[in-house]
Design goal:
The chain is mainly α. It is built from 21 helices and four strands. The longest helix has 31 residues, at 88-118.
């Protein structure tokens, strides 16, 4: 980018917005006198406050890409790259981009299908007033995919879309034009867009399996061309010089004491810190979690407020109670709704993507991993077994999936879910998971028979029910933001 990349936290909100908007400038979104969005519009689109949006605009101006004009439309001065496919940045990312493309080909059909069936229909169709600005096929196709993620109602999924878009920049369209030529590339994207529109219009009328097949076909065509190019491109092969994709779902400031408190409550539930025993000292816990002692003191204060521990002067902090259903209401009073919403969104993302991911990953699972999943499903205690199965399958994907991008995404989802165990009704609630005996039997059967389809479908059912029960619990607690996360019924059968 002409050597003028703004120095900023690569995981910050403004940096993500900056990279996304720079990518759209490179793609030609604002050619032909198309108006560049204002800070207020950017804040709304990326679901952030005004300040990160304004800082992103300043970064674009500092990079020489735009000129901010008070009282007038922002002027586009230049694109980040003269030829992105010849840039050092693309060569550094080419190896990882191939992995990202294979990941998109795997999970994007289900993500788009879920948005079509369960999402907010207002987000799915491009508004008539936007069609002129999006008349170039590439722009329109990108907007269709973005709309599908918006329909999910998930900031977590949307952050994944923006991070992948920022990493790819203009590579996908540039590769299509390089491989096919302008005319054929435009024709392909026009055909893909038309078929995608057909899927949107008929998603709630046709059987989901038929829509999924059409989306998988489209994905295979689109990403197949790009994959064939990336297999031939002479990218940087030295691992130390490659730029690797990494998803950062949490951007901006985080209240670490909330996260740490939930993690410790989960360990109390799991018996790591049994009732009646003392927690490690504050300094020891600070070392364990790699935080300051001040942060850990705030965490212990929060645990005292929740009623699960009691700090005794001169003695230490004693565990006095494991969590029960009443803890949900205490957490509701003490924690930010955004934090609780994040747990729900992680479950949604897992429910939507797990079936194709497990189908792809299962052949690579070790026998030990398969045995661990079967053993987790056979635990007599329903609550313990449910959590154990979720953990065993997620860890197997993280360890053995051949796609680095999937491993990274599932590692981040696991962090959300490990913190959120305390919020799920199957952990805190009195009743068993709906249909657990059937689910348990199918998981054990799939492991014994090495049946990847049975395991993937059954795990999807388990994660769907975990998502729905969590959403129901949060709505009962008065977490209004839970209503915005798409999904009211079980996902997709067949």
């Amino acid at each position: 980018m002409k050597g003028r990349r703004p120095m900023s936290n690569s995981n910050s909100r403004e940096r993500t917005i900056y990279r996304s908007l720079a990518g759209k400038i490179q793609l030609g979104f604002y050619d032909n006198e198309t108006r560049f969005p204002s800070a207020k519009e950017i804040a709304s689109q990326y679901q952030v406050s005004y300040c990160p949006a304004q800082r992103a605009l300043k970064m674009l101006e500092q990079g020489g890409l735009i000129k901010l004009c008070r009282g007038k439309s922002t002027a586009i001065l230049d694109k980040p790259y003269r030829d992105y496919l010849e840039s050092p940045v693309f060569k550094q990312r080419a190896h990882s981009l191939l992995d990202v493309i294979r990941t998109l080909n795997l999970i994007l059909p289900d993500l788009c299908l879920y948005g079509m069936i369960h999402g907010d229909s207002r987000h799915l169709s491009v508004q008539p007033g936007d069609r002129k600005a999006l008349s170039i096929p590439g722009r329109y196709l990108y907007q269709q995919f973005e709309n599908s993620f918006l329909a999910l109602g998930s900031r977590t999924a949307l952050s994944l879309y923006y991070d992948i878009s920022s990493f790819a920049e203009s590579a996908l369209l540039d590769i299509l034009y390089s491989k096919l030529g302008s005319s054929k590339a435009d024709d392909l994207m026009t055909d893909v867009s038309a078929e995608y529109d057909y899927c949107v219009r008929n998603s709630r009328a046709l059987p989901p399996v038929r829509i999924r097949q059409r989306l998988e076909h489209l994905s295979g065509i689109f990403y197949g061309i790009i994959e064939s190019y990336l297999l031939e491109v002479p990218g940087i092969t030295a691992p130390g010089q490659r730029e690797v994709f990494s998803w950062a779902p949490r951007k901006g400031r985080t209240r670490y004491c909330d996260t740490l408190a939930i993690n410790i409550v989960c360990k109390i539930n799991q018996g790591v810190y049994p009732v009646g025993t003392l927690l490690p000292s504050g300094s020891a816990l600070a070392d364990i979690y790699h935080v300051s002692e001040i942060t850990m003191r705030r965490t212990i204060h929060l645990l005292n407020q929740l009623g699960v521990v009691k700090t005794l002067n001169g003695i230490g902090t004693r565990v006095i109670s494991a969590s029960g259903p009443e803890l949900l209401y205490k957490i509701r009073e003490l924690m930010m709704e955004d934090h609780l919403r994040g747990f729900l969104e992680a479950l949604q993302l897992l429910a939507v993507t797990c079936e194709p991911v497990i189908m792809h990953s299962f052949p690579y699972f070790s026998q030990e991993a398969v045995d661990s999943i079967a053993m987790a499903a056979s635990v007599p205690d329903t609550k313990e077994s449910t959590t154990a199965v979720l953990n065993a399958v997620m860890q197997a994907v993280i360890r053995f999936c051949p796609l680095m991008t999937i491993r990274d995404i599932y590692r981040k989802i696991t962090l959300f879910l490990s913190e959120g165990n305390v919020l799920r009704p199957e952990v805190t609630g009195p009743g068993p998971v709906s249909g657990w005996n059937m689910i348990s039997h199918r998981i054990q059967e799939s492991c014994a028979a090495k049946d990847s389809a049975l395991l993937a479908g059954t795990f999807r059912l388990l994660s769907e029910r975990a998502f729905l029960s969590t959403k129901h619990a949060l709505l009962e607690l008065g977490i209004s933001q839970a209503e915005e996360v798409a999904g009211e019924t079980f996902l997709i059968s067949g």
